[in-house]
User: Fold Regulatory protein from Streptomyces wadayamensis.
Amino acid sequence: MHEYTSSARVWGLSCPGFPEEVSRARRWTRDILRGSPLAEDAELIVSELSANAILHTASGQTSGSFHLALAVSPQVIALSVTDEGGTGTAPKVEHQDQEAEHGRGLGMISAIAHRVVVHDSHGGYTVTAELFTAGSAGGQPC
Assistant:
């Protein structure tokens, strides 16, 4: 393979900030990752990140939207959701007690994913969860 050629494939999807779009994001993820042993984990992560964008940011307000990116390579599946901000604080893992009804989503994602990164993104935030494929431990660097 040529040194400037990548075997990664990248997909993107923009969704209006309506609750029913969470199921669309899940289905989109499931369709792209059909046959992958990580498809169910990826679907759960996208569902939680999409719901968080709608519930906790300007993405869920009138004319709001959120954006998904899915990158697949032989070493990693990277799932990103970008929201429209409006919260003033970055998403973070919160440790809730057993009775809490909210605030467990990013903790759950952190338990499933091998790495979770939050970036400022043009007034909003992008949360990226990475799932390493079975052969990626000690794999070749990019």
